[in-house]
Design brief:
This protein is mainly alpha-helical and 296 residues long. The chain is 46% helix and 7% strand.
Length: 296
């Protein structure tokens, strides 16, 4: 039996398309939703879900659900997580635990309850897990790390590498199937490149400014989402947004000045409300996105 998993932080539809064309469709496709993707990512997810449904390929979307919170109100997405705890995504702090927490862990948890997987393990078998690493340099580095890991429950397989597919070959396969190429996920990951920042809509840029402003008082070893300044870019994406004039100066200044204080005020108010009735961080984010912050 096989269970496919996404790789390289984006849905590997080229892997799915080619497997289905070869008559080797997986028994299950999983996608982890960290709760803070761009609208076009969710639109693509709905489209590819319909594509799989038409071909009888089981598809499940899984989510990490926190059980314990350092600070109230509770959060249910990676965006709300970093804002609640006044921190940055772990990749900006030199770690990669955000992917493990919000993507890998919920997939593993689902599979451990999946009846075919439990039956295989009961018979002493491993579940074959398909990982979408291609032969690009970045995926080759990920593969070199993953290939050395021994998992007692899963046997990992890397079909794109078996087929010697480059990133360009993957894109060509998607287009040949008449499907759109999936957009890169997340608008505030520290791995985002300058040209990708330039292409972001204004609401994503505003969230980046908010995240860095909220975390700034607690930062000691990094400057912002891009960690530290180099000769080609600043450590804070906010500074890049300002220099490139991607948002008005006055709007950047207002977010940095008012949003963190307004957020703390919201958290303080929520802390005195009974737990079952407390508003979520998502409610404050919705107000921020709608421009409804209180004046500081």
């Amino acid at each position: 039996m096989t269970a496919s998993a996404k790789g390289a932080n984006r849905f590997r539809s080229e892997l799915l398309i080619e497997l289905e064309a070869r008559g080797e469709a997986p028994d299950l496709v999983l996608s982890a939703d960290p709760g803070a993707e761009k609208p076009e990512t969710y639109e693509y997810q709905r489209m590819i879900a319909a594509w799989m449904h038409a071909r009888g390929i089981p598809y499940e979307i899984v989510r990490y659900v926190p059980r314990r919170f350092k600070h109230w109100p509770p959060y249910y997405s990676i965006l709300a997580n970093v804002l609640t705890n006044a921190t940055l995504p772990s990749i900006s702090l030199g770690r990669h635990s955000c992917s493990l927490k919000w993507k890998v862990a919920p997939q593993d948890a689902f599979l451990k309850q999946w009846a075919p997987a439990r039956a295989a393990w009961a018979n002493g078998q491993k579940v074959e897990r398909l990982i979408g690493y291609d032969t690009s340099p970045s995926d080759s580095r990920r593969h070199a790390h993953a290939a050395g890991l021994d998992d007692p429950l899963f046997q990992c397989r890397y079909p794109l590498r078996e087929w010697n597919w480059t990133r360009d070959r993957c894109i060509a396969r998607i287009e040949a199937a008449g499907l759109p190429v999936p957009p890169k996920s997340s608008c505030f990951c520290g791995a985002i490149r300058p040209d990708e920042v330039r292409a972001l809509p204004a609401w994503c840029l505003r969230l980046i400014v908010l995240i860095e402003a909220r975390a700034e008082p607690r930062l000691r070893t990094v400057e912002g989402l891009w960690r530290r300044s180099t000769r080609t870019r600043p450590g804070r994406i906010t500074d890049f947004i300002r220099a490139e004039r991607l948002l008005p100066e006055a709007e950047i200044d207002a977010i940095r000045r008012d949003a963190p204080t307004d957020l703390i005020r919201f958290q303080d108010a929520a802390s005195i409300v009974p737990i079952a009735e407390r508003p979520t961080m998502e409610e404050w984010i919705a107000s921020f996105n709608a421009g409804l912050m209180e004046a500081a």
